[in-house]
């Protein structure tokens, strides 16, 4: 091969990644014959284009595998125009007038060739089928028979339901299905990520090289590796980042569940503390009321025993052996519950207080308060009267 000295070139291109080419000027070709799959993309840099021209001895074709005519292409890399491939005059070719369609087709060829080479390097052979997507993009179906595995390179847009339908269909035919989603297949990628926590993506590597990259995408991360570092293992399409990405996701979920449980426990503690404080305030308020000579009618808090029969028994243990001057004969007409209340209330009016509102004699856990008060009046413990609209009692 001739050696050439490349002169520095001055670049004056707005976007060197996506140079504008006129109608009929193509950026792609294959270098391995009319039915070739070895696609090359032309650099917008003239020196690079000239290097490619020398490297392949001016042999470029419009590949039938990409939907082209199979005709020879000429690489033009003059001093003014951005380098391009063109057909010989008079060629009748679908790709000749549609460089965008040509770019999509060659992207697919590029992936196909790289994947087959990658599998071959692992001692695996594969067959390929193409599907044409709605946008004219060719999707690739790679079947690795020895592994009962298919690799679906999804470049064209695919809806969620259609993705599920195809995924189930492939799973009926083989044991393992790997989807590699291109930039145009974001919807299918999102559906798979939702179902399986992760999705694998495929893209042409940065730069003019032929490297293809596989990305692992989860809710947390997006990590890319060169295809050459990935492996088609017996159970899965393995990438160097896959296990870590899934482990990170599991750890984040565990952490989030633990945090939620901790927050719930904190909230339960705060609520218990609020309730205890409320009970203390209620009890304080009742004690204050009682100190002014009144026992409240009833407690709204079931847990609060303040003023009940057991409570009186606890704070005045002498009640158990106490008896009034009148004896207990006056309680004979009362129910058992009424007699129990009468023991406490007669103690209150005989020993603790000399007067107060009737309400202080109605124990919160008793429904017989009115009968007990009437019996106390008949037995001569107290006298009932009214003052300023409040029914009151006073010791006799
Ligand atoms: Zn052609």
UniProtKB/TrEMBL annotation:
Q: Indicate the segments forming the Competence protein CoiA nuclease-like domain, all copies.
A: 105-183
Give the region (Disordered) as residue ranges: 257-296
Please give the Pfam families that the UniProt record associates with this protein. CoiA_nuc
Origin superkingdom: Bacteria
Biased composition (Basic and acidic residues) is annotated at: 257-273, 281-290
InterPro entries reported for this sequence: CoiA_nuc
Q: What is the protein's given name? A: Competence protein CoiA nuclease-like domain-containing protein
- Source organism per entry reads Nocardioides koreensis
């Amino acid at each position: 091969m001739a050696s050439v000295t490349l002169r520095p070139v001055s670049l004056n291109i707005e976007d060197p990644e996506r140079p504008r080419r006129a109608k009929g000027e193509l950026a792609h070709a294959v270098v391995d014959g009319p039915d070739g799959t070895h696609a090359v993309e032309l650099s917008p840099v003239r020196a690079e284009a000239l290097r490619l021209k020398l490297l392949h001895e001016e042999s470029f074709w419009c590949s039938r595998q990409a939907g082209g005519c199979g005709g020879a292409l000429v690489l033009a890399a003059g001093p003014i125009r951005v380098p391009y491939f063109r057909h010989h005059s008079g060629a009748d070719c679908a790709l000749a007038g549609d460089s965008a369609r040509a770019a999509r087709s060659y992207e697919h060829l590029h992936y196909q060739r790289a994947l087959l080479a990658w599998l071959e390097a692992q001692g695996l052979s594969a067959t390929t089928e193409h599907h044409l997507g709605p946008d004219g993009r060719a999707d690739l179906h790679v079947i690795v028979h020895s592994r009962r595995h298919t690799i679906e390179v999804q470049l064209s847009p695919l809806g969620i339901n259609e993705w599920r339908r195809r995924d189930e269909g492939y799973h009926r035919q083989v044991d393992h299905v790997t989807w590699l989603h291109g930039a145009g297949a974001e919807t299918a990628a999102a559906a798979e990520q939702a179902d399986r926590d992760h999705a694998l993506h495929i893209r042409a590597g940065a730069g003019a090289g032929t490297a293809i990259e596989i990305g692992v995408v989860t809710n947390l991360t997006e990590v890319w590796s060169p295809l050459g570092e990935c492996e088609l293992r017996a159970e899965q399409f393995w990438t160097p980042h896959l296990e870590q990405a899934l482990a990170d996701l599991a750890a984040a979920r565990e952490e989030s569940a633990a945090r939620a449980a901790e927050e719930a426990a904190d909230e339960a503690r705060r609520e218990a503390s609020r309730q205890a404080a409320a009970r203390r305030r209620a009890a304080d308020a009742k004690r204050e009321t009682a100190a002014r000579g009144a026992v409240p009618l009833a407690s709204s808090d079931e847990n609060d025993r303040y003023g009940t029969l057991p409570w009186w028994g606890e704070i005045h243990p002498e009640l158990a052996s106490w008896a009034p001057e009148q004896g207990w004969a006056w309680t004979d007409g009362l129910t058992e519950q009424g007699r129990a209340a009468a023991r406490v209330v007669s103690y209150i009016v005989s020993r603790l207080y000399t007067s107060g509102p009737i309400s202080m004699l109605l124990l919160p856990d008793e429904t017989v308060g009115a009968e007990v008060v009437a019996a106390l009046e008949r037995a001569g413990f107290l006298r009932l009267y009214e003052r300023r609209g409040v029914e009151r009692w006073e010791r006799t």
